[in-house]
Amino acid sequence: MKARFVAACVLGTLALAVATSAEDGASKEVRIDLDHPRKPDTKAAPANKTAPAAAAGAKKDGAKPAEAPPGIEGMAIARGDRGYLGLKIENGLFKMTFYDHDKKQIPPDVAAAVLRWPVHYQRSDERTLLTPSDDGKSLTSEKIVRPPYTFRLYITLLKDASNPDPTNGETYTVEFQQ
Fold first, then answer.
1. 149: how many CB neighbours lie within 10 A of its CB?
2. pLDDT above 90 for 172
3. Is the pLDDT of residue 157 over 90?
4. Distance of CA 20 to CAs 7, 16, 32, Å?
5. How far apart are CA 75 and CA 90, in angstroms?
6. CA distance 140 to 161
7. Does the N terminus or the C terminus of the chain have fewer Cβ atoms within 10 A?
8. Cis amide prior to 40 (ω within 30 degrees)
9. CA-to-CA distance for 85 and 83, rounded, in angstroms?
10. Do residues 1 and 8 lie in contact, with contact meaning Cβ atoms separated by under 8 Å?
């Protein structure tokens, strides 16, 4: 199997060399030495000399940079008429923030959220409950999330935390990545 792979690589390299020399219009001898790999190119790319000048020019204008519009922390999830959710993992814990249509942060309009995601280290999915944070501006979890932070995430927002009925809130499925 290894010999076939090496032969395929050699033939592919030869075909590429022949095609390149055919494009140049000149016939060249191609010599491939399999015992000595090619040395990496040690030449450094020239530095961009125009970037510092452009930055200096911007400072001299005296114009203040425009304020960035308010953004959504973490992964943005559209909620339709209710605005947006921002979801991120901060210090190993989920943090969910709520935003209006103008992407300005608002207090949570739900009592709790339940998150579920598959993991590679056990058969059953991990689950956590997000409850209001101490400052009341977001929902946070108490369960540490183990990396890698790339998985399909099932979100259920509950209007009433004591009622587990599925019609009690909203559900979302997202490909979470951080």
1. 14
2. yes
3. yes
4. 20, 6, 15
5. 12
6. 14
7. N
8. no
9. 7
10. no
